[in-house]
Amino acid sequence: MDTTAPLTPDESKTRGQAQREAAPRGAIAKVSDRPADYDPVTRLMWQGETRQPDLLSLRYSRMLADPMSFYRGNALLMAEDLVRGSNSSLEVQICGDAHLANFNLFSSPERRLVFDVNDFDETDQGPFEWDLKRLVTSLTVASSHLGHSDAQQERIARTAAQEYRLSIRRFAGEDRLATWYSTLDIDAVVTDLGGFFTENAIHRIDHVVAFASGRDTRKAFAKLIVDDKDGPRIVNRPPLLVPLKDLHESGYLTTGDLERLIAGYARTLSHDRQVLLSQFTPVDAARKVVGVGSVGTECYVVLLLGRDEFDPFFLQVKQAGPSVIATATSHESMMPAGERVVQGQRLMQATPDVFLGWHSVKKGGSTRHYYVRQLFDNKAAIAIDRLDESLLVTYGRLCAWTLARAHARGGRGGEIAGYLGKSDVADDAFAEFAMAYRDRTLSDFAALTSAVKEGRITLAT
Question: Which segments of 82-224 are extended strands (E)?
Fold first, then answer.
């Protein structure tokens, strides 16, 4: 048995404070310069070379819908910018793409409505501040899109950074198990936050949640299913949803490939989940287009039936490649990409999907990696464009609290709290960074817009 004594709270705090010499908190504010020959459009096109070519025009179309949509797809560009900056060595499991739209409401295994990070395609080991920079910048970009002033945008970013700093300090002072089991249960938000929000703020949380556009699972299933002579099958709605039997583009998995993938993936589940999954039979599969940044990567939905045709169940099979963090740092993960996503989600998310697992398949002379989860679990996303400044402040605080909890689960909350300190030095630096990176985002957005006019990229018609 390892008898190495863990760091005491004071030792963790001191170790975190020592980080300020190599990475001063004020340096957080600086956006690194890019190499003279760096072209954001070229980097996005390079990223597209590993994606399905028939979907690239759709990817660019979604990114150019507005600056926030572009930001959702620019994770590689930002990761490369972050690597070039001044960074702490306080590495934890990070989301890698912690923008505000990647926080959602969904049902926990106990069927409670919870709020958490819900996208882990880019999860990896990295400095904690990369996630927080990604979050606060997304708040300023969204705030800018909503027509808020610079002062409003900066306030929203600073408040979120402050929330993270205070929350990570709170988690650092809690018992390990208390942090691990802490969730943002919407039905018990006062208890879960321990009075951290005022009654007025909690009232605003109710308003934020009211703007969640959710989907009842059975109603969502019904929209994806059509009655066929052989029973329920997946509807054909190209290009967003195309059954494999109707998919004529090359490079995708076949029905046989997916059957083998599901069989292999099942072995990554706990025994009780394997028994549950064995009670469902796969009957159909389709390619599905999801998100913005993910467009062009392979994504499939598999329809399974349980007791009978009135007992449908969908699994989502999503391709996993190297994270943008690994690409930017030239670091190669020691585990398959699908497993990286799953293990990162299990570590950061308080209530991960009980059907979350992974598998790899050989296709066309190469090995492809995938992770699998439920397609729907009463998931709901907040309608950001319906939030005013006050509600966006509240939403940013919710995201920051959740991110702090996710980082603290890895055990380095005390060091992060020691580094950030009790003053508002780090808060101001994160807010300044957010405003500066907002400007870079808008510049990159304009560059991609110009690339369309120049014929470098094409949009979906």
Answer: 91-94, 103-107, 113-117, 124-127, 184-185, 212-214
Question: Please, are residues 301 and 294 in contact by the beta-carbon 8 Å criterion?
Answer: no
Number of domains in the chain: 2
What's the pLDDT tens digit per position in 286-310? 999 998 999 999 999 999 999 998 8
pLDDT tens-digit profile of 79-111?
A: 999 999 999 999 999 999 999 999 987 777 666
Taking residues 122-140, report their average pLDDT.
98
Indicate whether 183 and 41 sit together in one domain: yes
Answer whether residue 323 is part of any domain.
yes
Has residue 4 been placed in a domain?
no
Q: In whole angstroms, give the CA distance from residue 270 to residue 199.
A: 41
Structural domain harbouring 343: 217-374
Contact between 417 and 16 under an 8 Å Cβ cutoff? The reply is: yes
How far, in Å, CA of 28 to CA of 50, rounded?
32
One-letter amino acid of 55: L
3-state class (DSSP) for residue 106: strand
Domain boundary among 374, 390, 422: 374
3-state DSSP call for residue 217? helix
Same domain, 368 and 402: no
Calpha distance 138→154 (Å, rounded): 12
Written as six digits, the tokens of 408 are 């603290």
Bridge partner residues of 336 (DSSP)? none
Expressed in angstroms, the distance from the first to the final Cα of the chain is: 62
